[in-house]
Amino acid sequence: MCRPDHFTVSYRINPWMRPDQPTDNALALRQWSNLHAAYRDLGFDVRLIDPLPGLPDMVYAANGGTVVDGIALTARFRYAERAAEGPAYAAWFRAAGLAVHEADAVNEGEGDLLLVGDTIYAGSGFRTDPAAHAEAARVLGREVVGLRLVDPRYYHLDTAFAVLDPAGGPGSVAYLPAAFDDASQEELRFRFPDAVIVSEEDAAVLGLNCFSDGHTVVHAPQAEKFAADLAERGFGTVGVDTGELRRGGGGIKCCTLELREAP
Question: Name one GO biological process term (predicted).
């Protein structure tokens, strides 16, 4: 995770961002601190990267890269405003002892590359280049299934698709069908016939931008129907409001990069 010490909305690279509306940095920091505390209370090992001045989106740690079995595929950002985040996270990965692979194709880390079981589901359409899918398969040694996003509000896969059970299975994810093209919807129905289908209302508060360890889901409290569906399926639920950070286009999962170390 990365503290939002420099968080603000000073440019617009997604529909959520409104530079004309001032952000409340103190509120963003309190909300982030609540998320950090929730993770610690759940027993997670939370490590921090130092925030850098001039990189207001660095708080969205999920975009910093993708780590599988101790291999870190670095991010290459589409927009110049975020380009320096890639090297910053790469340096942190090296210092942490991970095997670092510098990406050739544009990819925005776990924003668009999500592991379910032994398969990586990879978004494209707005940020990550489809060429990055083949690179991820080669570097990380996993099957990669491409999913095309068509709604600009859900510009990263992790805003429209949530991993509920990292082990995989027919009901191990949740998603918003309308965020995907027809072929991707068909693929999702085939692979996850028992998925949680999330409403437009819950997706619009970035309810799908949640984090789960397979037992407990940390989610936006505004996504009430989604939380009820999760509880009905036996998941524990913890609501943490990150509404101020949502103004930059990110929520709980965006603030969370999973470090899957070598077995």
Answer: arginine metabolic process
Q: What is the pLDDT of residues 103-153, one digit of tens each?
A: 999 999 999 999 999 999 999 999 999 999 999 999 999 999 999 999 999
Close Cβ partners of 261 (under 8 Å, ≥ 6 residues apart): 67, 69, 70, 98
- Alpha-carbon separation of residue 95 from 21, 88, 128 (angstroms): 37, 11, 26
Closest by CA to 7, choosing from 56, 55, 47, is 56
**Alpha helix positions (H), the chain:** 25-41, 85-95, 131-140, 182-191, 200-203, 224-232, 243-246
Q: Measured between alpha carbons, how far is 171 from 161 in angstroms, rounded to an integer?
A: 12
Query: Residue 21 in 3-state DSSP?
Result: coil
Burial class (CB in 10 A: 0-12, 13-18, 19+), 126: buried
Question: Nearest Cα to 248, choosing from 1, 7, 3, 5?
Answer: 7
Domains of the chain, residue spans: 25-255
CATH assignment of 25-255?
3.75.10.10
* Count of all residues that appear for the chain in the document: 263
What is the reported pTM?
A: 0.97
Residue in this structure with the two tokens 């999973």, named with its chain if needed: 258
Active site members: 156, 254
> For residues 191, 142, 250 and 97, what is the CA-based torsion angle, rounded to 10 degrees?
150
**Torsion angle in degrees (nearest 10) through CA of 219, 225, 231, 235:** -30
| pLDDT tens, position by position, 17-53 | 999 999 999 999 999 999 999 999 999 999 999 999 9
